Amino acid sequence: MTLYHSATSPYVRKVMVLAHEAGLVDRIALVPASGTPLDPGSVPLEANPLGKVPVLTRPEGGALYDSRVICAYLDALAGDRFYPQGARRWDCLTLEATADGMLDAALSIMYETRLRAEPMRSDAIVAGQWSKIARSVTLLEDRWLAYLAGPLCMGQMALGCALGYLDFRLADRGWRKHAPTLSRWQDEFSARDSMAMTTPPG
Ligand SMILES: N[C@@H](CCC(=O)N[C@@H](CS)C(=O)NCC(=O)O)C(=O)O
Fold it and tell me: What span, in angstroms and rounded, lies between the C-alpha atoms of 162 and 156?
Protein backbone atom coordinates (compact mmCIF):
# COMPACT_ATOMS: atom_id res chain seq x y z
CA MET A 1 0.00 0.00 0.00
CA THR A 2 1.10 3.57 -0.61
CA LEU A 3 0.11 6.41 1.69
CA TYR A 4 0.43 9.99 0.46
CA HIS A 5 1.84 11.49 3.61
CA SER A 6 2.63 14.79 5.28
CA ALA A 7 4.32 14.69 8.69
CA THR A 8 2.42 17.78 9.88
CA SER A 9 -1.06 16.67 8.79
CA PRO A 10 -3.15 15.55 11.77
CA TYR A 11 -5.41 13.50 9.46
CA VAL A 12 -2.39 11.62 8.14
CA ARG A 13 -1.30 11.17 11.75
CA LYS A 14 -4.61 9.42 12.53
CA VAL A 15 -3.83 6.88 9.82
CA MET A 16 -0.25 6.40 11.02
CA VAL A 17 -1.25 6.02 14.69
CA LEU A 18 -3.72 3.31 13.71
CA ALA A 19 -1.12 1.66 11.45
CA HIS A 20 1.31 1.49 14.40
CA GLU A 21 -1.32 0.19 16.81
CA ALA A 22 -2.49 -2.43 14.28
CA GLY A 23 1.03 -3.56 13.31
CA LEU A 24 0.59 -2.53 9.67
CA VAL A 25 3.37 0.06 9.32
CA ASP A 26 5.69 -2.27 7.40
CA ARG A 27 3.02 -2.81 4.74
CA ILE A 28 2.66 0.92 3.95
CA ALA A 29 5.09 2.87 1.75
CA LEU A 30 5.07 6.61 2.46
CA VAL A 31 5.15 9.16 -0.37
CA PRO A 32 5.47 12.82 0.65
CA ALA A 33 2.56 14.98 -0.54
CA SER A 34 0.91 18.19 0.55
CA GLY A 35 -1.34 20.93 -0.74
CA THR A 36 -3.53 23.79 0.40
CA PRO A 37 -6.98 25.03 -0.67
CA LEU A 38 -5.11 27.51 -2.90
CA ASP A 39 -2.88 24.95 -4.56
CA PRO A 40 -3.14 21.15 -4.52
CA GLY A 41 0.67 21.05 -4.67
CA SER A 42 1.92 17.45 -4.81
CA VAL A 43 -1.36 15.74 -3.84
CA PRO A 44 -2.24 13.21 -6.62
CA LEU A 45 -5.47 14.62 -8.03
CA GLU A 46 -6.11 11.50 -10.11
CA ALA A 47 -6.34 9.62 -6.80
CA ASN A 48 -8.21 12.28 -4.79
CA PRO A 49 -9.97 15.05 -6.75
CA LEU A 50 -10.42 16.96 -3.46
CA GLY A 51 -6.66 17.56 -3.42
CA LYS A 52 -6.19 16.52 0.21
CA VAL A 53 -4.03 14.08 2.13
CA PRO A 54 -4.21 11.36 3.34
CA VAL A 55 -4.77 9.17 0.28
CA LEU A 56 -4.11 5.42 0.36
CA THR A 57 -3.64 3.33 -2.77
CA ARG A 58 -4.40 -0.35 -2.35
CA PRO A 59 -2.60 -3.38 -3.83
CA GLU A 60 -5.87 -4.55 -5.41
CA GLY A 61 -6.19 -1.12 -7.08
CA GLY A 62 -8.21 1.97 -6.28
CA ALA A 63 -7.42 4.88 -4.02
CA LEU A 64 -9.09 5.52 -0.67
CA TYR A 65 -9.73 8.82 1.07
CA ASP A 66 -10.46 10.45 3.49
CA SER A 67 -8.84 9.56 6.84
CA ARG A 68 -12.02 7.97 8.20
CA VAL A 69 -12.37 5.65 5.22
CA ILE A 70 -8.67 4.75 5.27
CA CYS A 71 -8.77 4.02 9.01
CA ALA A 72 -11.86 1.80 8.63
CA TYR A 73 -10.12 -0.06 5.76
CA LEU A 74 -6.88 -0.60 7.71
CA ASP A 75 -8.83 -1.74 10.77
CA ALA A 76 -10.67 -4.30 8.64
CA LEU A 77 -7.30 -5.54 7.30
CA ALA A 78 -6.04 -5.86 10.87
CA GLY A 79 -9.02 -7.95 11.98
CA ASP A 80 -11.62 -5.40 13.15
CA ARG A 81 -9.93 -4.40 16.40
CA PHE A 82 -10.37 -0.66 16.84
CA TYR A 83 -14.00 0.04 15.93
CA PRO A 84 -15.87 -1.83 18.69
CA GLN A 85 -19.12 -3.73 18.22
CA GLY A 86 -22.23 -3.12 20.32
CA ALA A 87 -23.08 0.12 22.12
CA ARG A 88 -19.47 1.35 22.23
CA ARG A 89 -19.39 1.42 18.42
CA TRP A 90 -21.63 4.49 18.22
CA ASP A 91 -19.64 6.27 20.92
CA CYS A 92 -16.41 5.49 19.09
CA LEU A 93 -17.74 6.84 15.78
CA THR A 94 -19.17 9.96 17.46
CA LEU A 95 -15.85 10.56 19.21
CA GLU A 96 -13.98 10.24 15.90
CA ALA A 97 -16.45 12.66 14.27
CA THR A 98 -15.98 15.13 17.14
CA ALA A 99 -12.19 14.94 16.83
CA ASP A 100 -12.33 15.35 13.03
CA GLY A 101 -14.71 18.30 13.42
CA MET A 102 -12.28 19.93 15.85
CA LEU A 103 -9.54 19.43 13.25
CA ASP A 104 -11.69 20.86 10.46
CA ALA A 105 -12.24 23.98 12.61
CA ALA A 106 -8.54 24.23 13.53
CA LEU A 107 -7.49 23.90 9.86
CA SER A 108 -10.02 26.54 8.91
CA ILE A 109 -8.40 28.91 11.45
CA MET A 110 -4.95 28.12 10.05
CA TYR A 111 -6.07 28.79 6.47
CA GLU A 112 -7.85 32.01 7.47
CA THR A 113 -4.84 33.36 9.36
CA ARG A 114 -2.04 32.07 7.10
CA LEU A 115 -3.44 31.87 3.59
CA ARG A 116 -5.93 34.69 3.28
CA ALA A 117 -4.53 38.12 2.43
CA GLU A 118 -4.57 40.29 5.56
CA PRO A 119 -7.21 42.86 4.49
CA MET A 120 -9.66 40.04 3.74
CA ARG A 121 -9.19 38.11 7.01
CA SER A 122 -12.27 37.68 9.18
CA ASP A 123 -11.95 37.70 12.98
CA ALA A 124 -15.57 36.57 13.13
CA ILE A 125 -14.80 33.41 11.12
CA VAL A 126 -11.81 32.65 13.36
CA ALA A 127 -13.89 33.21 16.51
CA GLY A 128 -16.72 31.05 15.19
CA GLN A 129 -14.37 28.21 14.30
CA TRP A 130 -12.62 28.42 17.68
CA SER A 131 -15.99 28.27 19.46
CA LYS A 132 -16.60 24.84 17.84
CA ILE A 133 -13.34 23.62 19.35
CA ALA A 134 -13.99 25.20 22.76
CA ARG A 135 -17.47 23.65 23.02
CA SER A 136 -16.09 20.25 22.04
CA VAL A 137 -13.31 20.46 24.65
CA THR A 138 -15.91 21.33 27.33
CA LEU A 139 -18.14 18.43 26.30
CA LEU A 140 -15.23 15.99 26.32
CA GLU A 141 -14.15 17.15 29.80
CA ASP A 142 -17.71 16.96 31.16
CA ARG A 143 -19.05 13.76 29.57
CA TRP A 144 -16.43 11.62 27.86
CA LEU A 145 -13.81 10.86 30.49
CA ALA A 146 -15.31 7.45 31.42
CA TYR A 147 -15.31 6.41 27.75
CA LEU A 148 -11.76 7.68 27.29
CA ALA A 149 -10.62 5.50 30.20
CA GLY A 150 -11.92 2.38 28.37
CA PRO A 151 -10.27 0.10 25.79
CA LEU A 152 -8.32 1.66 22.92
CA CYS A 153 -10.47 2.58 19.90
CA MET A 154 -10.19 4.72 16.77
CA GLY A 155 -12.13 7.55 18.41
CA GLN A 156 -9.45 7.89 21.08
CA MET A 157 -6.69 7.85 18.45
CA ALA A 158 -8.48 10.59 16.49
CA LEU A 159 -8.89 12.66 19.65
CA GLY A 160 -5.21 12.24 20.54
CA CYS A 161 -4.32 13.59 17.09
CA ALA A 162 -6.81 16.49 17.33
CA LEU A 163 -5.61 17.63 20.75
CA GLY A 164 -2.02 17.14 19.59
CA TYR A 165 -2.72 19.46 16.66
CA LEU A 166 -4.12 22.13 19.01
CA ASP A 167 -0.87 21.89 21.01
CA PHE A 168 1.16 22.01 17.78
CA ARG A 169 -0.52 24.96 16.04
CA LEU A 170 -2.88 26.76 18.45
CA ALA A 171 -1.27 26.27 21.87
CA ASP A 172 -1.56 29.99 22.71
CA ARG A 173 -5.34 29.59 22.89
CA GLY A 174 -4.85 27.47 26.01
CA TRP A 175 -7.40 24.63 25.65
CA ARG A 176 -5.70 22.79 28.54
CA LYS A 177 -6.62 25.51 31.09
CA HIS A 178 -10.32 24.73 30.61
CA ALA A 179 -10.05 20.94 30.68
CA PRO A 180 -7.55 19.73 33.30
CA THR A 181 -8.59 16.07 33.29
CA LEU A 182 -8.71 15.85 29.49
CA SER A 183 -5.30 17.52 29.50
CA ARG A 184 -3.92 14.72 31.74
CA TRP A 185 -5.55 12.10 29.51
CA GLN A 186 -3.81 13.67 26.51
CA ASP A 187 -0.43 13.60 28.27
CA GLU A 188 -0.84 9.90 29.03
CA PHE A 189 -2.17 9.10 25.56
CA SER A 190 0.69 10.99 23.90
CA ALA A 191 3.18 8.72 25.67
CA ARG A 192 2.00 5.71 23.62
CA ASP A 193 4.62 4.56 21.10
CA SER A 194 2.18 5.14 18.22
CA MET A 195 1.80 8.79 19.22
CA ALA A 196 5.48 9.35 20.06
CA MET A 197 6.52 7.94 16.66
CA THR A 198 4.13 10.27 14.80
CA THR A 199 4.73 13.55 16.65
CA PRO A 200 4.85 16.39 14.10
CA PRO A 201 8.34 17.83 13.57
CA GLY A 202 9.14 20.87 15.78
N1 LIG B 1 -11.65 15.12 5.88
C2 LIG B 1 -10.31 14.93 5.40
C3 LIG B 1 -9.49 16.19 5.66
C4 LIG B 1 -8.10 16.09 5.04
C5 LIG B 1 -7.40 17.45 4.99
O6 LIG B 1 -8.03 18.51 5.11
N7 LIG B 1 -6.07 17.40 4.82
C8 LIG B 1 -5.32 18.64 4.69
C9 LIG B 1 -3.92 18.47 5.26
S10 LIG B 1 -3.95 18.49 7.01
C11 LIG B 1 -5.18 18.97 3.22
O12 LIG B 1 -4.70 18.15 2.46
N13 LIG B 1 -5.63 20.19 2.84
C14 LIG B 1 -5.57 20.66 1.49
C15 LIG B 1 -6.88 21.32 1.09
O16 LIG B 1 -7.75 21.56 1.95
O17 LIG B 1 -7.03 21.59 -0.10
C18 LIG B 1 -9.69 13.70 6.09
O19 LIG B 1 -10.19 13.28 7.15
O20 LIG B 1 -8.76 13.09 5.52
Answer: 10
